[in-house]
């Protein structure tokens, strides 16, 4: 194990310890600092009343902090804080002296247990009132300012740590949610790619198999040619699936259009196309998926005899329109393939429109040519 890995392990251990103790730990660590001296003084002086009040303040302070960091209603912690303030009032009434430790302790308790929108205001109020009390008791401006500074620092630092830990918890929760959403999104991408790949490929294989069945007896050469094409299609589909699984698959519109035209013509569908313009890579890939999905729908559902593919490009938008003269009303216009196509288009800031009637089915895609949207 290298020195760097040891350091990382130690950092992880320290971070885990801090996560477990960051809530009550920071507030409780100041308890012996602020309360040890007055408790020992009361013991040495034999002052049972002072010792009782100091111990009561200590116990109630611990309860307040622990309540604030457990799943108890907010008002319970606020009631405990009010009890601490009442004990401070008792401390002043009986004039036990040694008040300097009380207000910083109260400020820490308030910053920990009182609802967060009011905590800082209470801390400032304690600092001001405590400064006046200390100033009148000792008739010293220096003591009053030091007392107020100690109270503000104790309360404000606790308040800021409370806000920070709350923010960290929110960020961790958000990170877990984003990780979950990323997993869901990747599953959807994988499902969509496999549907688009295998659905089209299997449809092509079915068409080729039907052609082999028709030509097997009359034209063995044509049947053999179609069998070779099935073999090639199978190899290509296997490579495509491997690439899709790896997440590196990138389709080209011109290549996909050429393959789709060949398959449709083998199935007896006349295809009218136009030259393919140069497109941005994301739009080119989107149109490639679109022509594959449309070709699959024509083979499976349309029973069409003609199909046309038109592409138009202006300064800001590329438009792809694929239409056929098949049984438009019987086509599945809301299936997985078109849903996946809509998701792809929306990622680029584009739109997918479908039109179906008894005269055929039309698929139109509008996509910005400037690249992917934010």
TrEMBL record:
Entry EC number(s): 2.7.13.3
Protein name: Two-component system sensor histidine kinase DesK
Organism: Brevibacterium epidermidis
Spans traversing the lipid bilayer: 25-44, 51-72, 84-106, 118-138
Top-level enzyme category: transferase
One Gene Ontology term of the molecular function aspect: protein histidine kinase activity
Keywords assigned by UniProt, alphabetized: Kinase, Membrane, Transferase, Transmembrane, Transmembrane helix, Two-component regulatory system
Residues of the Signal transduction histidine kinase subgroup 3 dimerisation and phosphoacceptor domain: 186-250
Residue ranges of every copy of the Histidine kinase/HSP90-like ATPase domain listed in the record: 290-368
Gene3D superfamilies, A to Z: 1.20.5.1930, Histidine kinase-like ATPase, C-terminal domain
Alphabetical list of PANTHER family matching this protein: NITRATE/NITRITE SENSOR PROTEIN NARX-RELATED (PTHR24421), SENSOR HISTIDINE KINASE DESK (PTHR24421:SF63)
Pfam families, alphabetized: HATPase_c, HisKA_3
Highest rank taxon of the organism: Bacteria
InterPro entries per record: HATPase_C_sf, HATPase_dom, Sensor_HK_TwoCompSys, Sig_transdc_His_kin_sub3_dim/P
